[in-house]
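Trying the structure run again after the queue cleared.
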Amino acid sequence: METKAPRDTLAPYFDNSVTAVRRKFTSFEDSYVQPIYDLLKTLFLSYPVPFVFFSILVAFSIFPILAFIIVSAATLSVALTVALCIAFSFSTGVFLFLGGILVAILGLAFLLSGFLTTFATSTYFLGRLVVLLHRFGRSGFRAWYQEATHIFSPPSPRPALSAKDLHASDDSVNFVKREAKHGLTPKIEL
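Done. Tokens:
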């Protein structure tokens, strides 16, 4: 079995590429270059002095025109970049300013809610103290203290007691009797 050298395998691709480039170049020359050349030759033969004048004018004008286009494009791109940077900086500043206002408002809302909660809770407990003192006399302090303690520190979950543990002691009966004696009704929680 004969192996081909890399040059032999690439030769057809190279030939195809050269042929395609030659075909494109010939097409461009036939379509654009040759008609323009023929037109310029006809103009030169028909009007030699104006043709030379316009040729010199074009030769001297092409570089300033290209320079103007390049400088204008560069200036426009720089101006757009600067404008975008300024707009981004401005929007960041506005965002930070409004964010600061939002944080200040939320801080005030936090402080106000803390004050109002404290005021409302204090008012509630003072009202409950007055009601319990009016209803139970001096033992209303104890009931108020138990109620406040229950609200601020709810009882922790306890393991369930069996039926034997529930009826094992008469302490609970004594506790209920003592509460009833003072006019307090025990709360039964399930």
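Residues 129 and 154 are 19 Å apart (CA to CA). Worth checking whether this holds up in the mutant runs.
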